[in-house]
Write a structure and sequence with these properties.
Blueprint lengths: L3 H7 L5 H13 L8 E4 L1 H16 L11 E5 L27 H8 L3 E6 L21 H6 L12 H8 L5 E5 L6 H6 L3 E4 L20 E5 L2 H12 L14 E5 L9 H16 L3 E5 L7 H4 L5 H16 L6 H7 L7 H21 L5 E5 L8 H6 L1 H20 L3 E6 L9 E6 L4 H15 L2
Parallel strand pairs: 2-3, 2-4, 7-8, 7-9
Antiparallel strand pairs: 1-3, 4-6, 5-6, 5-10, 9-11, 10-11
Amino acid sequence: MPTIQTLRQRLTAPGAHQALIEQVLAGAAAPAAAHVFTALFAEPAMAAARAADEAQAAGRPLPPLAGLPVTVKDLYDIAGRTTRAGAVLRQDAPAALRDAEAVARLRAAGAAIVGLTNMSEFAFSGVGLNPHYGTPRNPAATAADPTVARIPGGSSSGAAVSVALGLAVAGLGSDTGGSIRIPAALCGLVGFKNTQARTPLAGAFPLSFTLDTVCAMTRSVADCLVVDGVLAGAPLPVAARGVAGLRLALPRTLMLDALEPAVATALERALARLSAAGAVIVELPLAELAEIAQINAPGGFSAVEAWVTHRQAMQTRRERFDPRVAARIAPGEGVSAADYITMQQRRRDWMARVTQRLSGFDALICPTVPITAPPIAELVASDEAFFKANALLLRNTFAINFLDGCAFTLPCHAAGELPVGLMLAAPAGQDAALAGVALAVEARVAS
């Protein structure tokens, strides 16, 4: 799927938007899209495409996403539908009375919402496996290595694969510990996790009230910014800039540990290109990153806050959960109010200290995830392999959620290689400045 700007230049013939959506709906039914969608909205999507064609024929201005295919993660409310959040446990839940605010804003921008996408149950995994509705195969990894079916990453697994297959210009997902950036990185896409408060959470099924973020993935930084502007209700005031003179902090603590050779090679290549273009890469100890595990204990924000949401079901219908998700929620049961408040207080202190450490830098730079996409079969077969991979996938991205920061992941692998993501991040509220950095870096590291 071309970028939004390219599509706007191409979709000028009568009926062009409708033809595009017809093509997308056919692709959604193809074998390559197995397990990507949990529902398709053919008629509403075609209606949005017709409206775009009619407006264009009449010479009226088109809203930002008019007639363009967009997918929605199945944790956002759609009026009249049950929000399943990747779980069989919610199949009998009441239907939503109204669209989630993010969905309503996409519709108002003219988006042709083609369907709901699959996900890790309750968004509680960076791997993307779903034992109830199947696991979509990573198409970018398949292109590099056709012999092995590899994970798409999670929890926004179907969202990533829908974009990677060319079935959407954007996949609306969520990011609590990396759920946009992990699948975007593993599928060779661009993902933007904004500062949490920038986009509305209303109508999104919660994992962690403290960490959940509404955001999307696309094929370019520019497209992420278009979608972010729709979701936030206003575009970021992004100033164009070059790579020369950028000060980028490369953290030596945690983020570079145990890098898979393919990831280390891609990172070194990207850093060399940026240095050659005049960026200043500064190795920064950032020892505060080693404190996260201790501050986020006992239980962790996601487990504690997920227990609040699921405690009744965990006590009476635990057998209906994905066992691996239930195992991650369970530690939240015994955390006291005093421990929880202490976690919040210590996190606020940590955020202030890390923000101060990053003062004077344009962005933090590191691999989005330290590994390439593992084979699906290996992680299905072994709990040990699953939890090891999940911890590695979440390690770098979660640090930015813990900071309530903003971050982009950009593809930095070469053609024919398994996808690798390069993460650029900054403290809370620095979204516009970071976007300018991401646009400049994207132009230098793109293969």
